[in-house]
Design goal:
With 355 residues, this protein is mainly alpha-helical. It has one domain. 66% of the residues lie in helices and 2% in strands. The longest helix has 31 residues. It is globular and about 45 Å long.
Length: 355
């Protein structure tokens, strides 16, 4: 999951932005330009080139650009979710957006003409992947975000890369690398600086339950990222994402019935429905596909570390669009994130072969 720093005011959520980056769209295999403010897109284009440049042309689209794009598109995700909670109960909102995303993913799978089917020996693994990644994680995330402050949530979700790396090493999906771990720690430190020196209120005194839920959510997402590497080579990012999404949603919806029944659907304004569509189709459908694609091509640690680029996106979006001036500490945090990402990126992903 991607995070937003405290410097982004909540009003920015009412105008979701997409960033122009000529990035590979893994669903169709083509490039997807997405419209946005030209100054923001210019800055992000520079950052994208810095972080994704490779020596060989064949390596240019090796997963890093999609991973960065995923985090860029989710730069306003936290603010959007907080805004939606004004109109929806978190669990009702969660269930509906996952249903919409499941339908969209099935349609995409059908358009691509891919054969559906799961090998008998993989049924149990896909159910577990779906349950942890698409049932437990969303519940923990929305309930945690509802019970803690945005700054707390951003800071705690920034721990995802280190959880993902350590779980990947423990599961023998990646080799341990001190350099990669140091790069991840630097990126987390930088993300923390961006969040801590922003404007949104931050407090660990009265939000203990929410903070624990966010930590648990980060661990679940990290586990899901690591576990998916076992099945991605067989099914590919599109099919595996669809299977896990549909299965997880099928488990989630019955558990959400009390909140779905209690929700006053007629009272939801147009902006609420637009936010729901944005969250379902971009924040879930697109980003889940891209995340799986990146995990499959560049590995767990290399993908997860891009999670901490998101605060940079939101910080500079606030500066360019809202005339907010980043503090020196926040700029130092940006530098630490970039150095950390570069340290991880500069080390070739080495997956541990399955025994």
């Amino acid at each position: 999951m991607c995070v937003i720093p405290r410097s982004m005011p909540m009003r920015s959520a009412s105008s979701p932005f997409f960033f122009i980056c000529q990035v590979p769209w893994p669903i169709t295999g083509t490039f997807l330009p997405v419209a946005s403010n030209s100054r923001v897109s210019m800055g992000l284009s520079v950052a994208t080139r810095m972080l994704t440049c490779e020596r060989g042309a064949a390596q240019k689209l090796h997963g890093r650009s999609p991973a960065l794009d995923c985090c860029s598109d989710l730069g306003f995700y936290f603010a959007l979710m907080k805004l939606m909670y004004r109109y929806f109960h978190p669990i009702a909102f969660n269930a509906v957006r996952f249903v919409i995303s499941s339908v969209a993913m099935l349609a995409i799978l059908n358009v691509r003409g891919e054969k559906a089917g799961i090998h008998r020996e993989d049924v149990r693994g896909i159910i577990w992947l779906a349950f942890i990644g698409n049932t437990v994680y969303p519940f923990l995330f929305v309930l945690g975000l509802d019970r803690t402050k945005a700054g707390n949530a951003a800071l705690l979700m920034a721990l995802t890369p280190v959880f993902a790396f350590l779980i990947g090493v423990a599961m023998k999906k990646e080799h341990f690398s001190a350099g990669v771990l140091m790069g991840i720690i630097l990126s987390i430190t930088g993300a923390a600086a961006i969040v801590l020196f922003g404007r949104t209120e931050l407090s660990f005194v009265d939000s203990g339950v929410g903070d624990l839920l966010m930590i648990a959510a980060a661990i679940c997402w990290a586990w899901q990222s690591a576990e998916s590497t076992r099945l991605l080579p067989k099914y590919g990012p599109i099919r595996l994402t669809v299977y896990a999404m549909v299965t997880g949603t099928a488990i989630m919806v019955p558990l959400s019935v009390p909140w779905l029944a209690a929700q006053n659907w007629r009272a939801i304004p147009a902006i609420g429905w637009l936010g729901l569509a944005y969250s379902a189709l971009l924040s879930i459908t697109y980003s889940y596909f891209v995340w799986a694609y990146a995990i499959n091509t560049i590995g767990i640690a290399h993908t997860s570390v891009f999670n901490n680029v998101t605060p940079i996106v939101a910080l500079f979006a606030g500066s360019l669009l809202l005339a907010e001036k980043p503090s020196f500490a926040q700029l130092a945090g940006v530098a630490l994130v970039l150095v950390g990402v570069f340290m991880v990126r500069s080390r070739k992903p080495i997956a541990v072969p399955d025994e």
